[in-house]
Please model this.
Amino acid sequence: LKALKVGLSESREGFPPLPAVESELKRISTLLPGTVLLNQQFTGITLQTQLNAAPFSIVHLATHGKFSSSAEGTFILAWDGRINVKQLDEFLRVSNQDRSRVIELLVLSACETAAGDKRATLGLAGVAVRAGARSTLATLWPVKDNATANLMTQFYQELETNIGKAEALRRAQVSLSQNFKHPYYWA
Model:
């Protein structure tokens, strides 16, 4: 597995910092080879360039995201501003045009990236699937930064054992629930 690991740990555009993103990407990098784009390195152009330059079976985005009924209000946050849903769709479609370059797993490690509405179900995760990602891992509600970093690390450790993605996530959640009883931290 080769992964593009992207994150934003510093405050941008009025969004609070996500200090655990840096350690999340470092820990994931010990498990998955590939490229890391953190903070200033994570711009719309660098994301697009990396997705076009090399095949990544996993794309991990650890940043703020927002879903809205309007395309203009749906985005993920990069260092240089918002990457709107149309841009993200284009980036992923170009990457997936060649069958040998299909993204097997897109992880949106941010709050409410799977939340949608009556007009567009599954939020940003739905956009990723429509763009050609074979599967997407995203969240339905706000998440705790440190707990998410732990969950993602455990998820990739489990995935390394050659079990399915759903089972890897289940095991990571069970593991995290031993230390954090409330579902806010692991669900």
Observations:
- The first helix runs from residue 20 to 31.
- The CA atoms of residues 96 and 181 lie 39 Å apart.
- The helical segments are 20-31, 44-53, 85-96, 123-130, 145-159, 165-177, 183-186.
- The first strand starts at residue 3 and ends at 7.
